[in-house]
Amino acid sequence: PRPAAAAAAAVLGVRVFRRHFGACPSPPPPSQSHCRLGLWMPAYSALASGGAVRPPRATCLLLASFAAGSGLWLLVGSQKEEQPDVASPRTQRSARSAAQLAKWFRWQAVLASEAAAHTASPGKGSLALWGDSITESWRGTSYGTPAGRANGTPAVLAQTLARRWPSPAVLAISGDQTQHLLWRLGDGGELPPPLASDGALTAVVMIGTNNLGAGHLPGPTAEGVLAVAREYLRRSRGRLLLCALLPRGDGAELLPRLCPPRCDRRGAPFRSFMPAVEKVNQRLREEAGGGRLSVDFPGRVSYVDCGGPFRAGGGRREGGEEEAEEVVVRLMPDRLHPNPEGHRLLARCLETALLGKGWGVQPTGYSRLGLPLGGSAP
Q1: Strand pairing category for 141-142 and 145-146
Q2: What is the pTM of this model?
Q3: Are 349 and 304 spatial neighbours (Cβ–Cβ below 8 Å)?
Q4: Per-residue pLDDT reduced to its tens digit, 35-66
Q5: How far apart, in whole angstroms, are the C-alpha atoms of residue 213 and residue 160?
Q6: Residue 64: which of 22, 122, 9, 104 has the closest Cα?
Q7: Strands of the 239-243 sheet, one edge to the other
Q8: Which end of the chain is more exposed for a tag (fewer CB within 10 A), N or C?
């Protein structure tokens, strides 16, 4: 069948690419001149440049590009719409351009390579953060490229969560939706045996806001988040902190583009994302806080809502009167992504939730009483 052939071709291309081109040192030595390639799709240009790529690896690159490109083309032709709870890589239906799609596959291969290099530390807990652009901000990047809005955020991570969980794995891609993370955990290779078998691993997952931004309804979006949670818990021995969607205040700009088909009963655009965000969060809270998810995986899943500091209490009154803001713009300048100050509050919330479950370890350089080694509390 066409969808099966498409998926097989795409997965084959990604795996061949990852095997031969997924791990390149920086700067690359002469023996790895293939690492100097930028986007990997136009391999023919590298071949034409006069031997910059050794023939065997160049051939593999061409095959990988052809297989992945063919698979993606077939997927676009065979799928009407990506479903939040059905694993799927990014396609042309969820990427803004072919260049962005290529960046997605290239960056995802890097994340899978990092996940495969995970080494469990006896007696120490491990932390992995999966998600979209909000989570990728911990790296200071977007699709692996430095992002101005995230300047200073990696330093916040080093000063907060990384003190207690050294070298946390940040496995995130800007723009991702639930179905993309679901694919990444499976065929994408971001939950390989070294990571999945680590019983001291705690995963922090925040995903789903881009589903709402793409026009998915709250019900299917919540099911997509829960599908991600189940996939992680089923495939690993670790624990899961499932995060509520953060507030977002960009509805006035984005929601008119989603109508039709996402319109209110009068056929007009919705005016705020917040009702949808709250519906998703209510469903996640029910499932992870005593519902089926927590019953099926006892002691391994918890839920946290870190949105409090970001809510401004604004928006629209019942009579249609417009208030100033729905989010605290000082913490979310673009009304969607927390800035470094916002990420500091987010880190504090996550740490409190993890320690409340007893899932934490003593921060580096501190005694068991929580005092700095060689000194007293400040």
Answers
A1: antiparallel
A2: 0.76
A3: yes
A4: 433 333 333 333 334 444 444 554 455 455 55
A5: 30
A6: 9
A7: 169-172, 126-131, 201-206, 239-243, 301-304
A8: C
